[in-house]
Design brief:
The chain is mostly helical and 514 residues long. Helix content is 86%, strand content 0%. Helix 1 (3-42) runs antiparallel to helix 9 (265-302) and helix 9 (265-302) packs antiparallel against helix 10 (305-342).
C-alpha cells in the first residue's frame, strides 16, 4: 500500500469517526429526551411494564454482537482481498444465519417466553392483555432487528459511516415522533407504543435493505452462492466471540450477585450507577474503534503487515487518549458530577465504584484494537478462551476476598488487578499471533500513555487541591473545572503522547475542518 493510499485511509478513518460521534451524541440526546416524554405519556406503571417485557425479549439479542462481529470480519477480509464472489457468499451465509436466528427467537419467545410472562413476571391482572401485545410486538421487532444486521455489517464494512449515522438519527427521530403520537389517541397507550415501535423497526429495516440493494451488488441474494464450509467458519467464529461475550456478562452479573449476597441492594444501586457510566464511556471508544476496524482487517487481507501493525498500535494509543481526555475531568470531579446528575443522596460507595469503572474502561480501550487484530486472522480461539477463563476467575477469587471480611471496594480492586494482568496476557498472545514484538508495543503504545497519564494526572491533582476556583461548588465552576482538566489532558496528549508525524497529521486535519 503506497503512502498516498495510507494518507487517504487515515482521512477516511477520521471522517468516519466524526460521523459516528455525530450519530452518538444526537442519538443519546434524543434518547434521554424521549425517556422523559415517554415516562410522562405512559405513566410509571405502564412504562415499567413496557421496559420489563421488552427488556426480557431483548435478552435474545445477546448473541447478535458475536454474529455481527463475525459478519464484519469476513466481509472486511474479502473486501480487502478484493474478492467480490466471496463477499457475496459471506453476505448470503450471514443473511441465512440471521434469518434462522430470528425464527429461533420467535419460537423460543412464543413458547418459553409466553410461559415466563404469564407464570413468573409480576404484572397487574388488568394489564396482562396489554403486556401480551407488547410482548408480541417486541418479539417481532427483535426478529426484524436480526434480519437487518447483515445490512448494517455491509455498510460498516464498506465504510459508509455517514449513511449508518443518518439512518440511526432517522430512527431516533421516528421514535421521538412515536412518543408525540401517543397524545393524539385515546387507545391503550401501552399497546399503541409497542405497535408504533414495531412500525419504526419495519421502516428502518426496509431503509437498510433498499439502500444496500441499490448500492452494493453483494446484497442481492443468489442461491448458487451457498457455501457450506463458509457457514461453519462463520458459526465457529461467532461461537468463540459469544464465549467471550458470555464471560463479560457473567463478570458484570457475577460481581453484582456477590455484592448483593454480602452487602445488600444499596451497594447494588451504587454498582448499577457505575455500569451506566461504563456503558456511556464504552460507546465513545466503541464508535472510534468501529471506524478503525475495517482498515485493520483489510490491511491484513492485503498482506501489508507493517501498516497492519501500525494501525493496531495507533488505534490502541488514540483510543486510550480519547477516553483519557474525557475521563480526566470525571476522575477529578467525580463526586460533584455525580451529585449534579443524581442529586445529593448518592448511594454509599458510588464515587469509588465509578472511578474504578473508569479505570476498567481505559484498559478496555487499549484491548479492543488487539482483539480486532486477532479477529483479522480468523483464529480467535486462544485469545477468547484465555481471557474468558481469566475473567471467570474473578468471581471465585472475589468471593473468597469478601468471605474473609473485606469491604465491597476490595472486589473492585481484585477486578482492577485482573484487568491489568488480562491485558498483559492479550499482548503476549496477540504479539505472537500477529508477528509484532512486545518491546515495540511497549515503546509505541504503553510508554507514551504512561507518560501522559502520570504527568497530566499528577498536575490535575495539584491544580484541584491548590487552585481554589477549580474546586468551588456550583455548576458554573464545575463546567469550568472540567474544561480546564480536559484541555490539560489534551495538551499533554498532543505534546508528549504523539510522534511528530502524528502531531502534524492531527494539526492539518484540525486546520482543514476549522
Amino acid at each position: 500500500m503506497d503512502i498516498h493510499q495510507k494518507s487517504a485511509n487515515n482521512k477516511l478513518i477520521i471522517k468516519n469517526s466524526l460521523a459516528l460521534y455525530m450519530r452518538m451524541f444526537l442519538v443519546m440526546a434524543v434518547g434521554l429526551y424521549t425517556s422523559r416524554i415517554i415516562l410522562r405519556a405512559l405513566g410509571i406503571e405502564d412504562f415499567g411494564i413496557f421496559n420489563v417485557v421488552s427488556g426480557f425479549v431483548s435478552v435474545f439479542t445477546f448473541i447478535s454482537g458475536a454474529m455481527i462481529a463475525a459478519t464484519e470480519r469476513f466481509l472486511n477480509f474479502h473486501i480487502g482481498a478484493d474478492s467480490e464472489e466471496q463477499i457475496q457468499k459471506v453476505f448470503n451465509a450471514s443473511q441465512i444465519i440471521h434469518i434462522a436466528a430470528a425464527v429461533i427467537i420467535i419460537f423460543l419467545a412464543e413458547t418459553l417466553g409466553l410461559w415466563f410472562l404469564y407464570n413468573k413476571m409480576i404484572i397487574p391482572e388488568n394489564k396482562l392483555s396489554s403486556a401480551f401485545w407488547v410482548f408480541q410486538f417486541s418479539v417481532f421487532t427483535t426478529a426484524l432487528l436480526f434480519v437487518s444486521f447483515p445490512y448494517n455489517a455491509v455498510i460498516i464494512a464498506r465504510e459508509r459511516m455517514k449513511i449508518f449515522a443518518y439512518i440511526s438519527i432517522m430512527e431516533a427521530a421516528l421514535k421521538l415522533a412515536v412518543v408525540y403520537c401517543l397524545s393524539f389517541f385515546a387507545y391503550d397507550h401501552l399497546i399503541l407504543y409497542g405497535f408504533l415501535i414495531f412500525l419504526v423497526q419495519i421502516v428502518i429495516t426496509l431503509t437498510y435493505r433498499i439502500y444496500c440493494r441499490i448500492n452494493f451488488a453483494e446484497t442481492k441474494f443468489k442461491i448458487r452462492n451457498i457455501d457450506r464450509a463458509l457457514y461453519l467458519q462463520l458459526l465457529s467464529f461467532s461461537g468463540w466471540n459469544l464465549f467471550g461475550n458470555i464471560a463479560s456478562v457473567a463478570l458484570n452479573q457475577g460481581t453484582n450477585i456477590l455484592l448483593n449476597l454480602f452487602f445488600g441492594p444499596f451497594v447494588n444501586a451504587a454498582k448499577g450507577i457505575s455500569l451506566q457510566v461504563q456503558n456511556a464511556v464504552y460507546s465513545v471508544f466503541g464508535n472510534f474503534q468501529m471506524a478503525q476496524n475495517p482498515q485493520i482487517i483489510k490491511s491484513y487481507a492485503l498482506g501489508d503487515y507493517h501498516y497492519f501493525h501500525q494501525l493496531i498500535f495507533r488505534s490502541s494509543k488514540f483510543s486510550y487518549y480519547l477516553v483519557f481526555v474525557m475521563l480526566l475531568p470525571l476522575f477529578v470531579n467525580s463526586q460533584e458530577i455525580l451529585k449534579f446528575w443524581l442529586g445529593s443522596s448518592l448511594p454509599e460507595y458510588t464515587t469509588v465504584f465509578v472511578n474504578y469503572t473508569l479505570f476498567y474502561s481505559l484498559i478496555t480501550s487499549l484491548a479492543m484494537p488487539l482483539i480486532t487484530g486477532s479477529q483479522a486472522t480468523g483464529n480467535i480461539k486462544k485469545i477468547m478462551t484465555t481471557i474468558a477463563v481469566f475473567f471467570w476467575m474473578i468471581i471465585p477469587v472475589g468471593y473468597i476476598i469478601l468471605k474473609m471480611g473485606y469491604g465491597p471496594i476490595a472486589l473492585f480492586k481484585v477486578q482492577a488487578l485482573f484487568y491489568i494482568i488480562a491485558h498483559l496476557l492479550r499482548v503476549y498472545i496477540v504479539s505472537g499471533q500477529l508477528g509484532f514484538s512486545k518491546k515495540e508495543y511497549c515503546t509505541e503504545v504503553l510508554f507514551p500513555i504512561f507518560l501522559v497519564t502520570g504527568i497530566s494526572g499528577f498536575l490535575a491533582w495539584l491544580l484541584y487541591y491548590f487552585v481554589p476556583f477549580l474546586s468551588y461548588k456550583g455548576i458554573g465552576w464545575l463546567i469550568l473545572s472540567c474544561v480546564v482538566f480536559a484541555l490539560l489532558g489534551a495538551l499533554f496528549v498532543f505534546a508528549l503522547g504523539m510522534k511528530k508525524s502524528e502531531r502534524v497529521f492531527v494539526y492539518n486535519m484540525i486546520q482543514k475542518y476549522i
